[in-house]
Amino acid sequence: MLVDYRKLDTWVHRMNPKISMLFVLFCIVASIVWTNIIYLAILTLALYLIGLSCRFPWKQIAWFLQFALIASLLILIIQAFTSDDSLIKTEWIQKTTLFYVLPDHKGAVKLGGVLYGVACCLKIYMVVFAIAILGFTVPPSEFIQGLSKMPFASKQLTFIFSTAWRFIPIIQGQAINLMNAQKTRGMEMEKGSLGSKLKKMMRIITPLLSNSIEIGTDIALTMEARGFGATKKSKFVRPGKMSAGAIVVCCGIVVLIGVLIYTSTIGFGVM
């Protein structure tokens, strides 16, 4: 996750992990089927307010938000010039041209392209906010346990998620150690041209990738030796109980996801 879990006494932290996971799934589905910037903006703002209420450390993901901003601006520029009219259902938006960047009415910047680019930017931030808040408010063990209870989650999928989550800090620590080792040899990562920086990064990425493959191979051999997958029932997930209220809320979110998908086919939430 983008932010490590932190134990706090907020209403989001006290929420059942399955509810949080289903709400994130709702946000992801909404980011796929919605193109209306009003609906996307409202849901993105709601996620931001939820983050404030659970004391989410926005400064910790400032670097990622800056990267997302650059990507969003590139998407906005590309969509402004190359937007497909079939993506926009409203006729007057399709036909509206804001201005031309070249003489003789060439290089048209269409309103539909700009709005669709803004929608894509909101989709990115909405998914980033949802996943970051999930990682901050749900303990990794409860996330894995909740995932294992999902009807689509197999034992193998659950193990992949749990292993990946467990080894993210290890990989991060190895990356920091490699960067510090290169700095002691006199290499300055921040200086030089773009090509020079890429060459310096390869000195870190190559051994890091090699170490990751070696770790993955060792884990695969160990699990195979222990007979992982040989039995039908997994033993590493403890049984958990849900309150009646949590079950009702989860069912409500599942129904909302279904309604969201259906209404998008008839034009609701579509620009």
| Quaternary structure classification | single chain
N-to-C span = 31 Å
Low-confidence stretches: none
Could you say how many structural domains there are in total?
A: 2
Task: Indicate the overall shape.
Answer: globular
Main sheet characteristics:
2 strands, antiparallel
**What proportion of the residues is helical, as a percent range?**
55-70%
Strand order of the largest sheet: 1-2
Q: What's the β-strand tally?
A: 2
Helix and strand pattern? HHHHHEEHHHHH
Task: Throw out a few tags for this protein.
mainly alpha, 2 domains, two-stranded antiparallel sheet, 10 helices, 2 strands
Structure write-up:
The protein is mainly alpha-helical and 271 residues long. The chain has 2 domains: 1-138 and 241-271, no CATH class; 142-231, no CATH class. Helices cover 68% and strands 4% of the residues. The protein is built from 10 helices and 2 strands. Strands 1-2 form a two-stranded antiparallel ribbon. Helix 2 (17-33) packs parallel to helix 10 (244-265) and helix 3 runs parallel beside helix 6 (111-137). The longest helix has 32 residues, at 194-225. The chain is globular and about 65 Å long. 18% of the residues are buried.
